[in-house]
Design goal:
alpha/beta, Rossmann fold, eight-stranded mixed beta sheet, 16 strands, 34% strand
């Protein structure tokens, strides 16, 4: 396969597990913080683990914010994973107010402490189901998966898109329903970790990269 795949390296994230997932599928992804490589690649993956504030600051220090925005505008496929998905949004309220990439309208919020009197354990860690929210599921990287597929999550914050049409799937955690993946044209985001989600997770990467 000759498709050029770049995994954005900005000092945070599960770079190598994503890289190994892509290699397993027959791709040779590049780990890069070079704006020129990012703009010239065919598919872009934005990983992330940790704090939104630190992540967006790191992207700024590596001068990667504008190249990622330009890549998204190019129409070529871009995928955000976990914190990488949250970075696609306008703003996060994790330890303050922090502007994101603004590629999808909406905000990043912390799970509530309780729902209907029931305490929510934070972080949300482990396997959970994803539920279809769109008729165009088949045109997304989730297209070959069945409804209620199990994915692996590790997070304390969730995204709230301004436009419900950007919600690709939802997930229920302790009776609290949240958006677990998003879509906007060529932009996809997954709160869960496909690279930690077995064969179904590998299918997500394969469906994303083959387009």
């Amino acid at each position: 396969m000759h498709k050029k795949v770049v995994i954005v390296d900005y000092g945070l994230g599960n770079l190598f597990s994503i890289q190994q997932a892509c290699i397993h599928l027959g791709y040779m992804p590049i780990l890069s913080s070079d704006p020129e490589q990012i703009l010239k690649c065919d598919s872009l993956i934005l990983p992330g683990v940790g704090s939104f504030e630190i992540a967006i600051r790191q992207l700024g220090q590596f001068n990667l914010i504008e190249p990622i925005r330009l890549f998204a505008k190019s129409g070529k496929p871009i995928m955000g994973v976990c914190l990488g998905m949250q970075l696609l949004f306008d703003i996060s309220y994790e330890f303050g107010d922090h502007k994101g990439l603004g590629l999808i309208s909406g905000e990043v919020l912390k799970f509530p402490k309780t729902v209907n009197g029931n305490v929510i354990r934070i972080p949300h860690i482990g396997w959970n189901k994803i539920y279809k929210n769109q008729l165009n599921w088949e045109q997304s990287p989730l297209g070959s998966l069945i409804n209620e597929s199990l994915m692996y999550f590790v997070h304390s914050y969730y995204v709230k898109p301004s436009n419900s049409s950007n919600i690709l799937t939802t997930t229920n955690y302790s009776n609290f329903e949240f958006c677990s993946s998003v879509v906007k044209d060529n932009i996809f985001g997954f709160q869960f970790h496909p690279e930690k989600s077995g064969l179904d997770g590998l299918m997500i990467y394969n469906n994303f990269l083959k387009n």
